[in-house]
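Re: beginner question about structure tokens

> Can someone show what the tokenized structure looks like for a real chain? I only ever see the sequence side.

Sure, here's an example I had lying around. Input first:
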Amino acid sequence: MKDTEELVKPVESKEPMKMQPIIVGVYVCLIALGVGTGYLLSRVGSTPVGGKPAMIKTDKISGSTDTKTFKDSAEGIIEKGGVNGEGTHKLVREGGPSQTAFLISSVVDLDGYAGKKVRIWGETFAAKKAAWLMDVGKIELLE
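And the corresponding structure tokens:
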């Protein structure tokens, strides 16, 4: 090996690399497609991402407009009290005690309807003690 020869040679600086216009165009297109896809996906569906369905409140009807979740319905007179810790209220229906639906509500304040004849829409849940347990989403005053 020669003494005058260096082991590491300094890097010769060349003119910095320029991005070719085609590569820049591809990146711009990808970003535009990503933004457009996000916008379109945010518009799909009945409710916005993280949003809630619309609510209705009139003299006779109160609750959610979500008919997909609250699709079961029943009519009767609301009374306070559940059965063995299931439900906060019950819907007394024609046909005797076997037709009683026990109620909870994540949407409607059922206390204001106690003693009144109503039609309710809700989602039925499995219960351990109650024959029928429903989460009420919408209520209509019949009398």
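Each token stands for a local structural state, so reading them left to right follows the chain. Strands lie at 55-57, 61-64, 72-80, 89-92, 101-104, 117-125, 133-141.
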